[in-house]
Recover the amino acids of this structure.
């Protein structure tokens, strides 16, 4: 009972945050809307017994990635008015087409979800250690060790890339 | 239903305690700082001026509320709330005493004790940064903006070293649950095997709370007052509360991780917890009275080139030690 | 208990909103944030399926997605900052050349 109330509150907040991402003009407000969605998703992760991921979502996404976004936005937008979007007449129909494609995509996904019978299915019983840090760590460092090491390589590439890009150029 | 009521009651008590601790702390800081500088400090209101914070609070309530014309109103008003809320929530999982038995039930002293306790603190405190950067941006004042940007860069940089210092303790204790960590220190406090981690934590906790010598976000002789330049009255007070409550939280975490939490002989555990936290608070004031402010590039270089590698080494050494001991 | 399908539909809603955002916005920063929204929507699906099958593989995948997304953001923001340095206002349609 309580969990479904929490689900609906978090779901409504997540969707309103998402709508904020696509409608707000000011990039700072866009970032804040996205943070709202991420925090709601963190709550939903808790409902799904993904405690560790809920914390990672808040810590990495809301706490680090979005702060980096805000850092860049406030740095670049200082004194610059957010560009008007309307004056691109050649793309006036763009929003319309985007909305149309979005609608088609949504109907397709909805069709497959309902078609597979997922809507009526209740989540299975909760396993004892499912979602805990211990079981997460065990899975990460045994069965999924190779992908884990590969992401380390990805991070290294990203660090080098940022250093190269951010270098002062003459 | 009972658990929900219990959580609400505990939350209320903790919030009231934290806010009164904030009031006392402002008085204590002025008093101790004055002693360091051979002056009496506040001594008019109440015994030894202890009621000074009440007068300060009243003054702030009656101050004129100013919102800059060019400010982004919603974000401007939201920012101090974010800071204060994050600060109050972060303390929730710190156990400040053993569980008590009341009405035939065992009630832990912390509000919520998920087995991710320590990660929860990191997640919530990382949200507190929003209060600073948004406040700085929304004021539409260049000093505020620079202060906000500085604080963001500083807190994110030092958070890494802090997290690694804490990882050493987690490895040694074999758990992320704060109560388990405390019980593992019954015989030997983690400050002994984890002395390097403790020193790193001590430095980063000062940086995380923007206190001297790392108070660059509000460096008054360069940035007026940093991110809260344009804030007055109660909104300014909220930033102050957030800063002091964050100090209490990091001190509480240091106590829990390195000084055996509420364990101690003779005195009640809650008193021991308060004594240990108070020692850290005194350390904060002592630093403020003693050290000059760092230059910004030195601060960043120190965080990335000294603290982070040392913290990494500490984690690695602890991991090897734990693996060998097992 | 909330049926797993609700999570999937919510995830679909978020994904579609993010997709529309990528198509309809002009500011690269905001397009980027819409992409992040799509990542997050997918993560929700993974976690929901992991809960349904009680399989940690879904959690691991989300963890990897978050890591890769963080790397992507770092690179993407560095590129945007570079572009902003060269020209005052940025519209993705003006960025049609490989050479700045």
């Amino acid at each position: 009972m309580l969990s479904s109330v929490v689900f609906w509150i978090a779901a409504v907040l997540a969707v309103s945050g998402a709508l904020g991402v696509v409608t707000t003009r000011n990039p700072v407000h866009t970032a804040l809307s996205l943070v709202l969605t991420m925090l709601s998703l963190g709550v939903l992760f808790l409902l799904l017994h993904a405690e560790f991921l809920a914390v990672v979502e808040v810590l990495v996404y809301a706490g680090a990635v979005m702060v980096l976004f805000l850092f860049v936005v406030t740095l670049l937008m200082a004194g610059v008015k957010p560009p008007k979007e309307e004056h691109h007449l050649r793309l006036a129909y763009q929003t319309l087409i985007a909305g149309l494609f979005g609608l088609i995509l949504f109907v397709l996904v909805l069709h497959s979800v309902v078609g597979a019978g997922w809507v009526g299915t209740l989540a299975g019983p909760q396993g004892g250690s499912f979602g805990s840090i211990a079981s997460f760590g065990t899975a990460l460092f045994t069965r999924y060790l190779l992908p884990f090491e590969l992401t380390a390589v990805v991070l290294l590439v990203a660090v080098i890339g940022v250093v190269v890009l951010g270098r002062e150029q003459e | 239903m009972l658990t929900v009521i219990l959580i609400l009651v505990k939350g209320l008590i903790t919030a009231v305690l934290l806010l009164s601790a904030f009031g006392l702390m402002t008085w204590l800081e002025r008093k101790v700082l004055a002693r360091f500088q051979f002056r009496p400090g506040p001594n008019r209101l109440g015994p030894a001026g202890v009621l000074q914070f009440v007068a300060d609070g009243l003054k702030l309530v009656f101050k004129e509320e100013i919102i800059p014309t060019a400010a982004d109103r919603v974000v401007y008003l939201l920012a101090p709330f974010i800071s204060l809320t994050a600060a109050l929530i972060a303390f929730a999982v710190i156990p400040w005493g053993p569980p008590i038995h009341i009405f035939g039930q065992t009630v832990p002293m912390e509000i919520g004790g998920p087995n991710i306790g320590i990660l929860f603190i990191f997640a919530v405190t990382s949200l507190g940064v929003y209060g600073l950067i948004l406040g700085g941006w929304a004021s539409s004042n260049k000093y505020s903006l620079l202060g906000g940007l500085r604080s963001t860069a500083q807190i994110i940089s030092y958070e890494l070293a802090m997290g690694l210092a804490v990882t050493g303790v987690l490895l040694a204790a074999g758990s992320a649950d704060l109560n388990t960590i405390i019980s593992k220190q019954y015989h030997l406090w983690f400050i002994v095997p984890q002395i390097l981690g403790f020193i790193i934590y001590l430095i980063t906790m000062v940086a995380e709370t923007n206190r001297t010598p790392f108070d660059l976000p509000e460096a008054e002789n360069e940035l007026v007052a940093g991110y809260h330049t344009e804030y007055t009255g109660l909104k300014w007070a909220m930033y102050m509360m957030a800063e002091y409550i964050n100090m209490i939280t990091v001190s509480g975490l240091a106590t829990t991780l390195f000084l055996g939490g509420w364990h101690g002989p003779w005195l009640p555990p809650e008193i021991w917890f308060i004594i240990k936290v108070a020692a850290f608070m005194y350390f904060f004031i002592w630093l403020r009275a003693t050290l000059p402010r760092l230059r910004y590039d030195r601060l960043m270089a120190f965080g990335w080139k000294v603290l982070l590698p040392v913290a990494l080494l500490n984690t690695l050494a602890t991991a090897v030690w734990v693996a060998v001991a097992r | 208990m909330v049926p797993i399908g609700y999570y999937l539909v919510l995830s679909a809603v978020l994904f579609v909103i993010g997709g529309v955002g990528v198509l309809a916005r002009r500011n690269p920063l905001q397009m980027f944030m819409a992409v992040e929204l799509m990542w997050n929507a997918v993560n929700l699906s993974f976690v929901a399926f992991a809960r349904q099958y009680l399989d940690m593989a879904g959690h691991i995948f989300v963890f990897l997605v978050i890591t890769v997304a963080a790397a992507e953001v770092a690179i993407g923001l560095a590129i945007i900052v570079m572009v902003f340095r060269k020209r005052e206002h940025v519209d993705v349609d003006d960025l049609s050349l490989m050479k700045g």
User: Anything to note?
Assistant: Chain C has one domain: 4-94. Residues 4-94 of chain C form a domain with the Helix Hairpins fold (CATH 1.10.287.3510).
